[in-house]
Amino acid sequence: MPALRNTKIAPSPLPLMSCAGVRWSLAAGCVSAALLLSACGKSAADASPAGAARPAPEVGVVTVQLGDVGLLTELPGRLEASRVAQVRARSAGIVQKRVFREGSDVKVGQPLFVIDSAPYAAALQSAKAALARSEAQLTQAAALATRYEPLVAANAVSQQEYANAVAAHQQAQADVAVGKAAVQTAQINLNYASVTAPISGRIGRALVTEGALVGQGEATQLAVIQQINPMYINFTQSAGDVMKLRAAMASGQFKKASGDSEASVRVVLEDGSTYAHPGRLLFSDLTVDPTTGQILLRAEVPNPQGELLPGLYVRVQLEQAQATNAITLPQQAVTRSAQGNSVLIVDAEGKVTPRNIQIGTSKGSEWVVLGGLKAGEQVMVDGFQKLQMMPPG
Fold it and tell me: Helix or strand or coil: residue 152?
């Protein structure tokens, strides 16, 4: 588009914004009016065919309004389950049964696999029997020590015999404690024969089948459970962008978004649609990756319907700061070139003048303007192709 300087639209006998020449619409939070730059009170019959001027074109403008504008940063990221648990066999044996449906949601403590428990049940019975023997010996030793106590005072038994009886009693007590621990250990091993879910979440496919020998020398992995509500999003941001943002905040040009530690996050899916549930920023790492110059960030997003899956590529829209006294303009109103960014200003007399501006980031289909415009000015947003240069003179 050629640069227009103090260019006039065809003469307009009526003031701008007159009656029937106004067209209202909403754009970028501003009121958009179509300025009719020709007489709207005349009809075609009132103008003489020979001397009638062509009607001035109708163009759309927005009125500049200043305000705080949230700056959105869009970054690529990957979804990750908020919790991942590997289900492993903690007791050695043959898998007898799988008692869950692959790909289903499971609850913590729900049985998943059954391992042959016969050896562990036998070990538990043996431990219980040993405990009973120790308890019987304790009873006998306690009775002997009790009987010797008055006799040693009467010198009916020697001090050595009494000391031996007391020591035997204490040893019997220790044997009972060992027996109880052995029973507890045997019970734990028996319980491990029934493999349960360590967390609630969605379980994947079974990694072993019935008849497989597991737990021999290592805890064999049987399945994986992932908690996908909520989901984590891991993404990175350039350290240079972070430093520029902090410098702008320090200078007062930008200010922190409300609740910066829990900044609002929007997820854009691969098909370009925006995920319905907003998330929140959990943390920003303090260390810069020396190989990429990026800083790791993590956000959390609800996933009640299970629509998001671990490993899915998404784009994250993160509001980290707000620009003060900023303006938003539709992108079609801004001309971008090697010489800079410019817009067309329409004054009260209908004159159109180009103006250089400074823009920041984009916000949807709009540019965030950081400088070059004043409140109340009118910027042309459509009707560019209708403009006509006035002849010189």
Answer: helix
Contact call for residues 112 and 233 (beta carbons, < 8 A): no
Six-digit token pair at 315? 């784009």
d(CA 13, CA 38): 6
**What is the C-alpha to C-alpha distance for residues 97 and 158, in angstroms, rounded to an integer?**
64
Please provide residue 93's backbone torsions phi and psi, each rounded to the nearest 5 degrees.
Answer: 160, -175
Give me 19's structure tokens: 């009656």
- What count of Cα atoms within 13 Å lies in the side-chain half-sphere of residue 309? 5
Largest Cα separation within the chain, whole Å, is 150
> pLDDT per position in the chain (393 positions), as tens?
333 333 334 434 333 333 333 333 333 333 333 333 333 334 344 444 544 555 555 667 778 777 767 667 788 999 999 999 999 999 999 999 999 999 999 999 999 999 999 999 999 999 999 999 999 999 999 999 999 889 888 888 889 998 999 999 999 999 999 999 999 999 999 999 999 999 999 999 999 999 999 988 888 999 999 999 999 999 888 887 777 767 765 655 555 655 544 567 889 998 888 898 988 888 777 788 888 888 888 889 999 988 899 999 999 887 766 666 677 778 878 888 888 888 888 887 778 888 888 877 667 677 778 778 877 888 887 766 565 433 333
**Model pTM score:** 0.61
Give the whole-angstrom CA distance, residue 68 versus residue 324: 5
Beta partners for 327? 369
Residues of 236-262 as b/e, b for ≥16 C-beta within 10 angstroms? Answer: bbeeeebeebeebbeeebbeebeeeee
